[in-house]
Amino acid sequence: MSKLTDIRQLPLNTLGFALGMTPARARLLILALAAIVSGALMLMLGSPLATLEQRLGALGWTLNPNTAPEQRITLVTIDEKSLAAVGPWPWPREQLARLVNAIDQAGAQLQLHDIVYPEAKPGDAVLLAALQSAQGAVIAQLPDLQSGQATRAGVMTHPLSGISCNAAPGGLQLGNTGNFLAPVATFAAIPKGHITPIIAADGSTLKTPAVVCVDGSPYPALALTAFLQASNDSPWQATIEPGSSLFDPDYVLQLQAYPGLDIPLDSDGNLRISYANAPSAYRALSAIDVINGSTDLSLLEDAWVIVGGTAFGMGDVVPTPYNGASHGVELQARLLGSLLDVDMPYTPRVSSWLLGLLSLLFALLLYVLAAVRERWAAYGLPIAAVLLPLAALSLHIQLLSSFNLWLGWLYPAIYGVLAASLLLLLEQGRVRVERSRVFGNLNSYLPDEIAREIAYSLPSSSINASRCDATLLSADLRNFSAFGEARPPEESAAVLHFFFTRATEIVERHGGRVHEFKGDSLLAVWDGHHREAAEQSLKAAQAMQSGLHHSLMPEHSAPGLQPLALGVGIEQGPVLIGSIGPAHRRSHVLLGDTVAVTLRIQEMTAELAQPILLGECAARQLADLQLESQGSYLLSGLKNPHILFAPAPVAGASRQDRQTPPDLMLVSGGH
What global pTM score does this model have? Predict the structure, then answer.
C-alpha cells in the first residue's frame, strides 16, 4: 500500500518541480514520468490488468466472428440428453465402445476423445478393441501443472522425441510435473495427447501448453497428437527452435511428419487458442443420437470427430470471450481448426518494440498538443486521453482480426491516459502560474479589483464603467521638472521611484489605493464619501508630508535648483470608474467632476502656499477638526466657485509620520 501511495505522490511532486523548468524540458520530464508510472502499474497490478487486456483484446475476434460452419470438424457431445438416456457419467465401457463404433462406421477419419479413462473397469477390453479397430483414434491424458496435488493415476504414454525437457533451446522452460491423470495400462497402445489448459486469473482458458514434460518426458497436446496420428509416422519426432525474424513468434514447434508446418509458441511454450470462429460454427451431435443412428450421420463422414462432455454435471466448463460457460470440447475444436488452417494466433517477438514505438508516437503527439497550448492543449489533451487508448486497442483488434497477430495494447493505452492527464495538469498548472504572474504584474499597474476584473474577464469594445462615491487624493511633486532638466535621467527616475513607493505605502496603510501615477503626481482613491474615508485620506496626506519632507525636500537643495515640495488636494463626490476603448487597447479611467475638482485643488496648494487643501465636501465630514478656510475660488477650467480648507498645523505627530513639514515654498509655474 505504501508503494502505491508513493507512486501517487510522485506525479504531484514532479509536477511542482516541472513547473520551475522550461516548458520543453518540463513536458519531456512528464512524458518520461508517465512511462515509468505506466510500467510500475503493469508490474503491481499485473493480474487484473492482464485480464482486462485479454478480455478487451479478444474483441478482435468477437466483434466480427466467422460464422461459416466448420465442416472438417464435428463434435459428438455427451450432453444432458445422452445422460438422461444412458445414465450418469461415467458410462459403462461397452456403451462407450458402441459410440466409438458408431462414429467409425459413419466414416470419420479420426476421433479424438477429450476424455481420460484412468480407472480399470469391466469392459475395458471391449473399448480397447473398438478404439484399435477405428480408422483413427486418440484419447486424452492429463498432466497436472497447477493444482499441486500429488496425483499419479494410469500410465503416461506416447511422448515426443527430439525435444529435451532439460535443455530446451533459447532458454525455454517447458512445463514439468510429476503429477498426472492418465488412462490405465490397458489403453497403453492407444495414441494419447494431453488436455492441460492454462487457466487465467479470471478462470478463462486462453492458452494451452504445446508440450508438457512428465517425469522428464515431453508429451504433446491432444490436437498435436491428432496430426501425429494422422501421419502414421512412428516414432513421433518434433523440434522446438527460437523464432528467427522479428515478426516470428518466440518459439516455433515443427513436426517432422509435416515439413513447413511452423506452429507458433509463446515464451512459455504455449499455444494461443483462437476464438475467430463463433461457437455456432462448430457442428455438434448428441452422443445418444449417434449411438442410435437418429441424427444426420453424414456430418461425421470424412470428418475429424471430437468426443467430449458438455453436460454440466461432467464439470468440463470454462469461460470464453463468447460465453461464461463453454465446454472443453469446443476448445479442442478451436485448436484443431487453427492447426488445420495453419493459422494460429501468436505474439511476434517484436511486439514489445512495437508497443514501445506506439507509445513513443503517442508521446510525440501529446508533446505537440501541449506545445501548441491555448485551446489545443485545453481541449486536445483530454480528448487524447480518451482516444489514444482506443487507438491502441483498435490497432490490436485490426491486427488480430486481419493477421491473427496478438500484439497487445494495454501499456500504450495506460501510457496515453497517464501522459495526457499529467501533461494536462502540467499545462493547467503552468497557465495558473502564468496567470498569477500576469495578475501580479497587472496589479502592480492597477488597483487589485481592477486588475482582477481585467485578468479574469474577456476584453470588450464597450464601455465598462460604474458610478460610485469616492474620496480622492491628488499628490504632486513640485519643482520636479526643473530638477529633471538639471539632473541625469537615472537620478530623476530614482527620485520618482522613491516618491511613488513611499506614497503608495502610506496610502495603502491608511486604507486607500493608488489609482494611477501620472508624470510626477499620483491619484489615490478611498471608497465612499463618509467621514472615515475623509479622515484616512487626510492622515495619509499628513503622513506623506512628514514622511517625505526630509527625504525629498531638504532645506538646502542643489545649487541653482529650488527644493522639491509636495502639494496634496483632497475632495469627495461621485465618480465613474471603469474601462473604455477598443478591445485590443483598453484604458482604465476615473472620470467625473470630483476628479477635476481634486486635481485643481491640488494645483491651488502652490498658489495658496498650503501643503494640503481640502474641498468643501471633504471638509464637511471633518467639521470637528480645526480646518481653516482659505476662501472661495473659481478653480481653473470650472464654472462654479469652491471653498477650500487647510488643516491646522499638527502639534505632535506619530513616530511613523514624524513632524509636520514647514510650508511649501511657492515657485511660480511649478507643476
Answer: 0.72
